[in-house]
UniProtKB/TrEMBL annotation:
Enzyme class, UniProt record, top EC level: hydrolase
Enzyme Commission identifier(s): 3.6.4.13
Superkingdom of this protein's organism: Eukaryota
Name of protein: RNA helicase
Entry GO MF terms: ATP binding; ATP hydrolysis activity; double-stranded RNA binding; RNA helicase activity
Lineage, broadest ranks: Eukaryota, Viridiplantae, Chlorophyta, core chlorophytes, Trebouxiophyceae
Pfam families: AAA_22 (PF13401), HA2_C (PF21010), Helicase_C (PF00271), OB_NTP_bind (PF07717), WHD_HA2 (PF04408)
InterPro entries the record matches: AAA_22 (IPR049945), DEAD-box_helicase_OB_fold (IPR011709), HA2_WH (IPR048333), Helicase-assoc_dom (IPR007502), Helicase_ATP-bd (IPR014001), Helicase_C-like (IPR001650), P-loop_NTPase (IPR027417)
Reaction(s) catalysed by this chain's protein: ATP + H2O = ADP + phosphate + H(+)
């Protein structure tokens, strides 16, 4: 046989492999609880204006329903858009469905998340974050590209999904039967959705759930990470085969527990009669190739330990899990409208979330859930989680609704109304940012432009202020760098080397300028050398690539707004370059301005709240008199994160409305 024969033989083998993969995927589809109900579901979507579909996580709602609707011709002349609260879910589900349909990702099946669009003119099923669908509505208020919209994970009640409820209700009325809506939820209280969407119907999928034994600790644990480690080890040593799913609150925690488990894996394997332990992390910032690993079975009978954020609670289903380890915590946003402080905090889950997490152990066989807290603590948890709209700052949401033509925000058809105080705060902030006029109307051009930029209103203002003062290039870099994943990676053992490598980037003016220095240095390295350069400097290559990408997209938005992306070094640019950038930061972040107190902490001017510099800040240990910062992080105490030193005299000049009010009000 010649070379041609070899090639043909190889092609035949590849084709056979693809065929058998498709066949096994098809078999898996047909085994899902939703499969038997497909004809009936298609009929219900066809007949009623809105269908509320309730089914246990893993029953096949997200991956299958859109395929059924497409096959039934319900998307004729348009697309099926499926929203997801989480980016990881949107991308991983799109990948799975493309595989099931045997098409390339980005062709018939695609996804769109902020700063990453993998869809095309051929796309018929598009998974997108709820935030992205809202953005699309700005350009296309009637969402004409869609014939069906599926609002998935409705039980999560994210702010964007909540707004979409009201918005799409209005769009449906205007498109007169030409837009179908499906609301999907993993929890049983469909009544609220059915009442809200007049003329809708509920359908329930019969789940397949094995019993899960729930175990509590006898006394409160001192360290839940230690307790999680001990529990994983105990399961591995004593329990029947089956994978373990551990719920943690974020990437740092996942990385530390992974290190702790890996350090003990060899011993643990010996104790378990030679069965290996394989640790697999899953969180939003993980590269997609690595995210895909959680769906693969562990090799050679090893036991897989999945360390996940809340993403594994309902958005994705990981096969093989029989043991759940749940410390009962989640990183959640909380907003204090009175203080105007927004913080990410680690807080206890609700009872509903605890049940949902435990349920993950019983999908394929009877399982066990280890709750790392006492039964009394469970009884004391709130029954359900508050909708996000009731515990978040609302400026971004308010700006978007105003740009969508909703002028009377308190009268908007919210499923649950946001707290009036928080809504007032948001409008005040938009007024102070110059996005609203005194009559509460969006300003032209500033307010309209801010609404177009896919970042928080404060950062939109930073960009626009930068563009106005000839430092758009720097402002773009800074906003891109704070929007990407953490740039400074956890150095693990090489703490000193990492600190030394980073020192050369440090700006005495703070974290934003330090990030700017990192990015500028990165750009000077040739493309081929960047990976190595990042490793040497202990910065995340992925985060920097992503920052470059975000930056390019934001620059595109500025160009679309016909704003020049001039650099501060440009001839004729007035004043000191770093001053101009810091002033642009103040123009957006003034509500997070704080002055130094004698004890080394800072007082936030807007709220009077005391904050400390976050240990990660380059200003930590320095004593700037006045600062602005991005984020208030509440852990054991309140920290200001991403900080820049500023001149206090700039505040009344750059945010006159805000500081006039605060001067009067005290
Ligand atoms: O939406 P719902 O929770 O009802 O289920 P789904 O996400 O459609 O998942 C159905 C099945 O597809 C599950 O059994 C998953 O294990 C599988 N799946 C997968 O293997 N890989 C993915 N990326 C997504 C789903
Ligand atoms: Mg789903």
């Amino acid at each position: 046989m010649g070379a041609g024969g070899n090639k043909r033989a190889r092609e035949a083998l590849d084709a056979a492999a693809a065929q058998s993969l498709r066949a096994s995927l098809q078999a898996a589809r047909e085994a899902l609880p939703i499969w038997a109900a497909r004809a009936q579901l298609v009929e219900e979507v066809r007949c009623c204006t809105a269908l509320v579909l309730v089914g246990e996580t893993g029953s096949g709602k997200t991956t299958q329903l859109p395929q059924f609707l497409l096959a039934a011709g319900l998307a004729q002349g348009g697309m099926i858009g499926v929203t997801q609260p989480r980016r990881v879910a949107a991308t991983s589900v799109a990948r799975r469905v493309a595989q099931e349909m045997g098409v390339a990702l980005g062709a018939e099946v695609g996804y769109t998340i902020r700063f990453d669009d993998v869809s095309s003119g051929a796309t018929r099923i598009k998974y997108l974050t709820d935030g992205m669908l809202l953005r699309e509505a700005l350009a296309d208020p009637l969402l004409r590209r869609y014939k069906v919209i599926v609002l998935d994970e409705a039980h999560e009640r994210t702010m964007q999904t909540d707004i979409l409820f009201g918005l799409i209700k209005g769009v449906q009325a205007r498109r007169k039967g030409d837009l179908r809506l499906v609301v999907m939820s993993a929890t049983l209280d469909a009544a609220k959705f059915v009442t809200y969407f007049a003329g809708s119907k509920a359908a329930y999928l019969q789940g397949r759930q094995f019993p899960v034994q729930v175990l509590y600790t006898a006394a409160p644990e001192e360290s839940y990470l230690d307790a999680a480690l001990a529990t994983v080890m105990q399961v591995h040593a004593e329990e029947a085969p089956g994978d373990v799913l551990v719920f943690l609150t974020g990437q740092d925690e996942i990385e530390s527990l992974a290190r702790l488990i890996n350090a003990r894996a060899a011993v643990a394997s010996k104790e378990a009669g030679g069965i290996a332990l394989q640790v697999v992390p899953i969180y939003a910032a993980l590269p997609p190739e690595q995210q895909a690993r959680v769906f693969e079975p562990a090799p050679d009978g090893a036991r897989k330990v999945v360390l996940a954020t809340n993403i594994a609670e309902t958005s994705i289903t990981i096969p093989g899990v029989r043991y759940v380890v749940d410390p009962g915590l989640i990183k959640a946003r909380s907003y204090n409208a009175r203080l105007g402080s927004d913080s990410l905090q680690v807080v206890p889950t609700s009872q509903a979330q605890a049940r949902q997490r435990s349920g993950r152990a019983g999908r394929e066989a009877p399982g066990k859930a280890f709750r790392l807290y006492t039964e009394a603590a469970f009884q004391a948890l709130p029954p359900t989680t508050e909708p996000e709209i009731r515990r978040s700052p609302l400026a971004g949401m308010a700006l978007q609704l105003l740009a969508l033509g909703v002028t009377d925000l308190p009268a908007f058809d919210f499923m649950d109304k946001p707290p009036m105080g928080a809504l007032m705060r948001a409008l005040e902030q938009l007024l102070a940012l110059g996005a609203l006029d005194a009559d509460g109307r969006l300003t032209q051009p500033l307010g309209r432009r801010m609404a177009r930029l896919p970042v928080d209103p404060a950062f939109a203002k930073v960009l626009l202020a930068g563009a106005e003062t000839c430092c758009a290039e720097e402002a773009l870099t800074v906003v891109a760098m704070v929007s990407t994943d953490p740039v400074f990676t956890n150095p693990g053992q090489q703490r000193d080397a990492a600190a030394a490598a980073r020192r050369r980037f440090v700006s005495p003016l703070g974290d934003h300028l330090t990030l700017l220095n990192v990015f500028q240095a990165y750009l000077l390295v040739g493309k081929a050398g960047r990976g190595r350069w990042c490793a040497e400097h202990h910065v995340s290559a992925r985060a920097l690539r992503k920052a470059a990408d975000i930056r390019a997209q934001l620059a595109g938005h500025l160009t679309a707004l016909e704003l020049q992306a001039g650099a501060s070094g440009a001839p004729g640019a007035p004043g000191d370059a770093t001053d101009r950038l810091r002033r642009a930061l103040v123009a957006g972040l003034f509500s997070h301005a704080a002055v130094a107190l004698p004890d080394g902490t800072f007082k936030v001017l807007a709220s009077g709240q005391a904050v400390a510099l976050h240990p990660s800040s380059v200003l930590c240990g320095k004593r700037p008199a006045c600062i602005v910062f991005d984020e208030l992080l509440r852990t054991t105490r309140d920290y200001a994160r991403q900080v820049t030193a500023i001149d206090a005299a700039w505040l009344p000049e750059l945010a006159p409305i805000f500081f006039a009010r605060h001067a009067q009000g005290g």
